[in-house]
Design a protein that fits this description.
This protein has five helices and eight strands; from the N terminus they run ααββαβββααβββ. It is an alpha+beta fold. Strand 4 and strand 5 form a beta hairpin.
Length: 206
DNA sequence: CGCCAGATCCACT
DNA sequence: GTGGATCTGGCGG
């Protein structure tokens, strides 16, 4: 459990679609008080200034500085007035691209994740939430893992990192579904429909 | 289960 | 001023 190697910077320095695909099945780890982790089951690629859904489409700005930086760093941004999104910067420095982590399945620290989710969401009388449902959206997993703007620019490959990805068995092609990215309602074609979303629903059963 | 409205604030043309 | 890489609760089938 604790001995698995972390994904090195060379993993993230590759083409974004490759990184997005290969992140499936890998273990996202967050050290926050205790160790929290989950297997990545959905990712999405945002690639360069020509991708009109990518935040870097307007070029270098204070917000996109991290995207233009070195691979293996977290790009965390705030949206919809209340949600944080976790991305991992890809490709060599100078080329703005990243992979959005859209969903994980809790492995360690489910109790803590549940508590963090409850703290942020209004909870009246409701049925128990299945583990996989705690982190099945980008804003939900960020909240469950305690990820916010303070982690923007965090180096996932640095010694002492409090957020990183550990190596796990690769996911077979037959378990991977490829489709269009989610939530790009106002993005022009072809960017709105390109199949840059990668996911699996196999792990959710466990 | 699907559809819809509302929440709430930041970055940008 | 506008719209967003979202989530939730409420309502209808």
């Amino acid at each position: 459990m604790l001995g698995m190697p972390r994904l090195p910077r060379s993993f993230f320095a590759r083409p974004t679609l490759t990184v997005a695909r290969e992140l499936l099945g890998q273990r996202l780890v967050r050290l926050a008080g205790r160790r929290l982790s989950g297997l990545i089951i959905e990712t999405e690629a945002y690639i360069g200034q020509t991708d009109l859904a990518c935040h870097a489409r307007f070029g270098r700005t204070p917000r996109t500085e991290v995207l233009f930086g070195a691979p293996g760093h977290a790009y965390v941004y705030f949206t919809y007035g209340m949600h944080w999104m976790l991305n991992v910067v890809t490709e060599p420095a100078g080329f703005p691209a990243a992979v959005l982590i859209r969903a994980i399945v809790p492995v360690e620290g489910e109790v803590v994740m549940r508590a963090r989710r409850r703290a942020g969401a209004a909870s009246a009388g409701r049925r128990p939430v299945p583990p996989a449902r705690l982190t099945d959206g980008p804003a939900k997993l960020a909240q469950a893992l305690g990820i916010d703007g303070s982690l923007n620019g965090h180096d996932l490959c640095a010694r002492g990192a409090r957020l990183f990805v550990e190596r796990a068995p690769p996911m077979a092609d037959q378990l991977v579904e490829v489709g269009p990215r989610i939530g790009l309602n106002n993005t022009p074609e072809p960017w709105k429909s390109v199949a840059w979303n990668f996911r699996t629903h196999i792990i959710e059963g466990a």
